[in-house]
Predict the structure.
Amino acid sequence: MATVTLTIDNIKVEVEQGSTILEAAKKIGINIPTLCYMKDINAIGACRICVVEVQGARALQAACVTPVAEGMVVKTNSAAVRASRKMTLELIQSNHPQECNTCLRNNNCELQSLSEAMGLKEIRFVRPAQSHSKDDIDNSSPSIVRDPRKCILCRRCVAVCEKVQGVKCISAVNRGFETIVAPPFNQGLMDVNCTMCGQCSLVCPTGAITEVDDTDKVWQALDDPNKHVVVQTAPAVRVAIAEEFGMEPGTVSTGKLVAALRRLGFDSVMDTDFTADLTIIEEGNEFIKRVTEGGVLPMITSCSPGWIKYIEMYYPDLLAHLSTCKSPQQMFGALVKTFYAEKKGIDPANIVSVSIMPCTAKKFEAQRDELKDSGYQDVDVVLTTRELARMLREIGIDWENLPEEDYDAPMGLSTGAAVIFGATGGVMEAAVRTVYEVITKEPMPDINLTPVRGMEGIKEATLKVGDLDVKVAVAHTLGNARKLLDKIRAGEADYHFIEIMCCPGGCIGGGGQPIPTNLEVRLKRIGGIYKADEAMPIRKSHENPAIKAIYEEFLGEPLGEKSHKLLHTYYVPRGVYRKPEGLPDKVPSGDHH
Amino acid sequence: MGAECKCHCEQDNKLDALFAQYKGNPNGLIVVMAAIQETHGYLPKDLLIKTAEELGVPLSDVYGVATFYAAFSLRPRGRHTVNLCLGTACYVKGAPEVQAMLEKEMGIKAGNTTEDRRFSLDLVRCLGACGIAPVMTVNGEVYPRMTAEKVAEVLAKYE
Amino acid sequence: MNFAELELLRATAKEAIKLRLGEEPSDNYKYHVLVCGGTGCISIGCQNTLEALRKAIDSHGLQDTVKVVVTGCMGTCEMGPVITVFPEGYYYCRVQPEDAEEIVTSHLKLGKYVERLCYHAADGSVQPRKSDMTFFKKQKRNALRNCGLINQTSIEEYIAMDGYKALAKVLQEMTPQQVVDEVKKSGLRGRGGAGFPTGVKWQFVLDQKADQKYIVCNGDEGDPGAFMDRSVLEDDPYSVIEAMTIGGFAVGANKGYAYIRLEYPRAIEHFTKALNRAREVGLLGNNILGTDFSFDIEIRVGAGAFVCGEETALLASIEGRRGEPRPRPPFPAVSGLFGKPTVINNVETWANICPIIINGGDWYASMGTEKSKGTKVFTLAGKITNTGLVEVPMGITLREMVEDIGGGVPGGKAFKAAQTGGPSGGCIPAAYLDTPIDYENLAALGSIVGSGGMIIVDEGTCMVDLAKFYLGFTQDESCGKCTPCRIGTKRMLEILERITKGLGKEGDLELLIELANSIKASALCGLGQTAPNPVLSTLRYFRDEYEAHIKDKTCPAGVCKMPRKGLKS
Ligand SMILES: Cc1cc2nc3c(=O)[nH]c(=O)nc-3n(C[C@H](O)[C@H](O)[C@H](O)COP(=O)(O)O)c2cc1C
Ligand code: SF4
Ligand code: SF4
Ligand code: SF4
Ligand code: SF4
Ligand code: SF4
Ligand code: SF4
Ligand code: SF4
Ligand code: SF4
Ligand code: FES
Ligand code: FES
Ligand code: FES
């Protein structure tokens, strides 16, 4: 590997050829501030915060995009550099609402901390014009709010939406001072091809793209003595929530999470993992049925609402490949207002069903018209990990000293198979653990399906299940999903079963997770997930006694009539920009509910 | 030309040929949009959606391009386009007064179209005819050495 | 067409224009009457003049001895419609249809030129022929060699004027490296503004190994007040087409793009016609002149964004995207159009290539100053008598430009400053009128040669207002990608707006300067990096005018509308 030697702040450093000044500086412990830069995803040199002095260059250079050269002499801290960064920040702030105190990103905002770090003291411009006003706020989506006033046009959101998700429903619009990042025709996110995945909200350095804050709705329900408020927690939340209270990413805090929710006053704290196990039973049986009876293959998982909206828009012709299983959140919701209500003798009209999700798309999912099989909206309010943390801070939770508590029955018991739903490959691994044993009626020799674990974009494996060679594939991010779907469309995919998760790393990297969520953090959370799996006494869904019980008591059998009504759903071919022609209104068509 | 044409069949043929030429090729975006602008006088939303689909460009990019370039208009334009040069030569020779008079006569601010769609008034930066500044064009016809006094007389020629 | 056929065509074509070159023609024509059909003259009614002339010539039965030719801009657009009568080169200005009869009866029939239509200099002297005119005397025309002398889209007339001689030479006698060496030797620097040595740029691209390379002609000419590129594209399109073809041969590209701004419909029309003609006769396309060298050119029309003149933005625009500049490196020479090595040169740069190939790099380098070789086209506009298009050797003084060529400031007003380089440039006040114009000297004065736009302003111009005008322009044309330019130019403009409204306050100038320097140092592309120049340069030479606005609430030039003196903001 060819290397280059340069001098940064009088320190000699040798780096790989093609590195940037930013990377070289990092190597010797100099952190050059950045705003628009995102490794591998966004290197456009737009914000100009990272400027440095390069000897011999006419102007300052952006460290994030300037490649090193032999003998280069760089100053990262000269007076000119400091003055320029400060002026750039002052300019940004001069076109920015000064409302940190009431901003969702207060205390976790890159612009705010930079202003503090750079010692910005004053904004000297007189009544500076503002490029955007409150009228420009986009509240159309149940998942995500855009506030262009706070946008610094770093375009990290655009890059993620385009390069990671392959969607690009937002783009730079207008030019000059009027430039704005927005959906086409100034429509709301709800009216365009947004998947609601929230990846943009994870990478936004400011409060310009955030989750919709639904905490007030939950407070209201909790404060209402006539309401029975039930909460479920998704697998990926337990390995992330602690970050909001200063703990290491990946810290497994299931018990503290339960305790904290009780402190908030929920009447019952149960686990989405329970319905994750249930999903495995239903989906596993559906898969076996498709294989044995010649159904549509490959079958694709359906628990990620970002992914579901994506396929409905971009590949409506392939909807029959989706498992008809609802996501665990929605199975849970449907059961709360039927099974649970019955068991507890509570009028479902008085139940408020809340879920804590790593996900912004789940907010959209909960509002889908077809997900009302209990006779009510199955899930009433979805909170992201970040919103839950906000509520907990409001009541002054002392996370470190919280006790560990257990989930409530009857939907609190779960297995290691359910926990791993939170990481890419997890649903596949959980399903295989069950399908293998259901088909072969023998214990699986090694239940750790390592080929489908990890951050590689598309993972494949072939497993011998009885006399069948089951070929599976796992993809995370919609960009990778697209590759598999194109293969299916072209008739080149000989897989039986595919898992697709919308977000990088799966739900541990979901759009509602604590900020920052980057590769390093994702890997740590994945580590937490597998640690939690291993710590579970039961690690296969079909061995969960509570699952066996619910079939006996309430559901009957997998894929049976009641299961079908409450646990399965249909999909809507949407098209990207307009309804596709020649496709039914829903898939599977026919009489579903 | 385009103004009398109601059904756009000829134009559509031209566009279809372009769509075919640039099928799946994002590089054709501006060429196609310029053709739409020329044949329709603006960029109708349905045609932009079609452009996105045919060329394989995200609609957000199509819109981003449409709003970047001054030549593209998202709203129907007037029957007559008045371009007033506000380049340096024209500016120092009195174009701002001409602008004020045009805006007064038309009752609109530059960059807009009159209620009756008779005129669209745009400011341009140098038509490359600085020798005869200030310069104004109506539907491409050049009016040299414009003054505020001449404005009404010129506009009267266009119904 | 092969080489022999080209020379054959040249021989016949040359016969037909000999009279214009001062040689004895072998045909029956006694006069060539050249009518300027440039944009300036057209807009002022040369069409009617042309018709009247033709009618008069016919009615006097002179159609077989007098040839009427429509040409491109002759350079004195302010005095249009202009006609030149050869062989002597009598130059008539502001020729109205009513004047046609007299020109025919007196000049074309009796050989007596019409004095009242001739150019009258400021001192009242009459300068009847081109060769008498001070406007032309100090000029040296390379890039504009054919403008105003030949029919704009006639490939025959172009070939008659040594057109395609350079390409033939290159294809028959030279290696790509020799072509690049010749351009290097000429010392030609890019005429688009930055002044980068053209040969060096070509060498970069020649040295790249790639399956595909591109040639691009930058015809976006956005500097308000500059129109030399328009003139070349309209009036001598083949000179650019031939040069791009040579460029393709030199660096190993077989495809070129000419990016021409939408505001130049006639340039697009003429260039398209010329491309078609060149293809028709085998001077463009496959197997040019029967060799195995192929090269073709496609036009891309700009869609109205000044920033697309910046090379990386221009490439993005050709690729169908928003014209947003990107950081360099990689430079277009390494990764340009569609990611391939690309030569991108300005129209005027291209227009200089053929004469350099024909006459040699040394010939070109013999003109101009030590570091700024050759000739440069300037557009003179604003408060100057002879507005128009001129080409002069580098090193001519500003005074010669303004007084001798430009005929001074009209209306008895005093010269105040020359703004060069448009919105990226600066002003040069009267004290520096004797500065020789070249890249280095103008830079030292805080301005630039830029694309060659030269706006003259007189005492009636407010420099604060002028700076505000330029900043308004760049602020409007900012692509909005980077912070310093997007927000910084807006804030600078706001300050200037306050000042010119009499609302300036103490500290404004300091903040303005601090902001200006910061934007210059940190903006992503040339637009932002140079946008503050007009402000800094007017502040450098006319700070007192700024202070009068702020402290005394008066506009010394009487341009800005100020509240009554003493009124507190
Ligand atoms: C904002 C901006 C506008 C520019 N506009 C033009 C232009 O209109 N025409 C041009 O030839 N070069 C223009 N340039 C310069 C080009 O980027 C580039 O340097 C030039 O086309 C190279 O050709 P040359 O070396 O022949 O000059 C512009 C540069 C900037 C930064
Ligand atoms: S985005 Fe950041 S800087 Fe802006 S108001 Fe919110 S916290 Fe403050
Ligand atoms: S940081 Fe300053 S402005 Fe913000 S709340 Fe505290 S005292 Fe107030
Ligand atoms: S939510 Fe996802 S799809 Fe929607 S804009 Fe953000 S990144 Fe793109
Ligand atoms: S919304 Fe956020 S991420 Fe997107 S451009 Fe604006 S500041 Fe950057
Ligand atoms: S991967 Fe998880 S977090 Fe992301 S959209 Fe799907 S369910 Fe939500
Ligand atoms: S497009 Fe064709 S049919 Fe339509 S109006 Fe024009 S000519 Fe007639
Ligand atoms: S008021 Fe007059 S002198 Fe003052 S800046 Fe304006 S134009 Fe110039
Ligand atoms: S300097 Fe201005 S024009 Fe150039 S990239 Fe920045 S914003 Fe765009
Ligand atoms: S971080 Fe380098 S320019 Fe934004
Ligand atoms: S400035 Fe108006 S035509 Fe050039
Ligand atoms: S256009 Fe006729 S002299 Fe310039």
